[in-house]
Design a protein that fits this description.
Blueprint lengths: L2 H17 L6 H16 L6 H10 L11 H20 L6 H12 L3 H5 L25 H13 L6 H14 L6 H15 L12 H14 L3 H22 L4 H12 L1
Helix pairs in contact: 2-3, 2-4, 4-5, 4-9, 5-9, 7-8, 8-9, 8-10, 10-11
């Protein structure tokens, strides 16, 4: 089955299962995996099991463990952002939509509110990431509009377009905090909209991801990041295939043999 058909089936399952509050299918699997890995990349201390518990039951077992309130708040915000992304995945990317994603991620994070971070609005103080010079607060709106105008001027997009979008978005770094998670959610959305197999960047590959991203931003070399995203696409495709493609017993046995080779 080609990627175009798989993505259509994936979108269909997402909407059906989200509406039914199904916690046993590809919607739940993706919610848990994406939220865990994307937050973990940014320093969350929650485990994958704890992430699943928050998503499935709205609770988390203490067992003498000390949790950072911010980690829990951002995890639930990520679930909300994903749901809103599903509702808007066919919309053209705009500054308003990007801000709406950020708002859903950060609206319940007390620490950010107490620090005076704009929620669902662009940064009001300069920030930094690695050795990248990010856009100054007064430049963000114009830089974001130029990025979106360039991206939206194309009738269709491929993986290279998404790589270039992501690299530039993270270089602008439009929000005070939450840029990585918002940016990776935009990637997932635009994959669905463009009939490209989406992907989840694994926390265990964080260093490689950052190195490839930095090469794209500093050297203009996008090939390593394109290859990296392609590898993560293949991994996600294998993870979700059996959740969205009903198979006969014979085909199921063949797939099992393929995985064991």
């Amino acid at each position: 089955m080609d990627d175009n058909k798989m993505v259509e089936l994936l979108k269909s399952r997402f909407h059906i299962e989200a509406e039914r509050n199904d916690r046993g299918g590809v919607y739940a699997l993706t919610q848990r995996k994406l939220a865990y890995n994307s937050n973990r990349i940014e320093g969350s201390t929650l485990t994958e099991k704890q992430t699943a518990s928050i998503f499935e039951t709205g609770t988390i077992r203490a067992d003498g463990t000390v949790f950072r309130t911010k980690d829990v708040e951002e995890m639930t915000g990520h679930f909300t952002m994903f749901n809103y992304m599903l509702q808007t995945c066919e919309e053209e990317l705009s500054q308003k939509l990007v801000k709406e994603y950020h708002y859903r991620l950060k609206a319940g994070v007390f620490e950010d509110i107490a620090n005076g971070y704009p929620i669902g609005e662009y940064k009001n103080r300069r920030n930094m990431v690695s050795d990248i010079i990010t856009s100054a607060p007064e430049e963000v709106e114009a830089d974001m509009q130029a990025l979106l105008d360039s991206y939206n001027s194309k009738d269709s997009h491929d993986l290279r377009d998404l790589v270039e979008l992501h690299a530039r978005f993270e270089q602008i770094h439009p929000f005070q905090d939450g840029n990585g998670r918002t940016g990776r959610m935009i990637l997932f959305k635009e994959c669905l909209r463009s009939h490209i197999m989406p992907f989840i960047i694994g926390d265990e590959r964080k260093a490689e991801y950052y190195e490839c991203l930095n090469n794209a931003q500093i050297k203009g070399d996008y090939e390593p990041l394109i290859r990296f995203f392609g590898e993560e696409q293949a991994r996600y495709s294998e993870m979700v295939r059996d959740f969205i493609c009903p198979v006969s017993k014979g085909k199921s046995a063949e797939r099992k043999q393929d995985r064991e080779r």
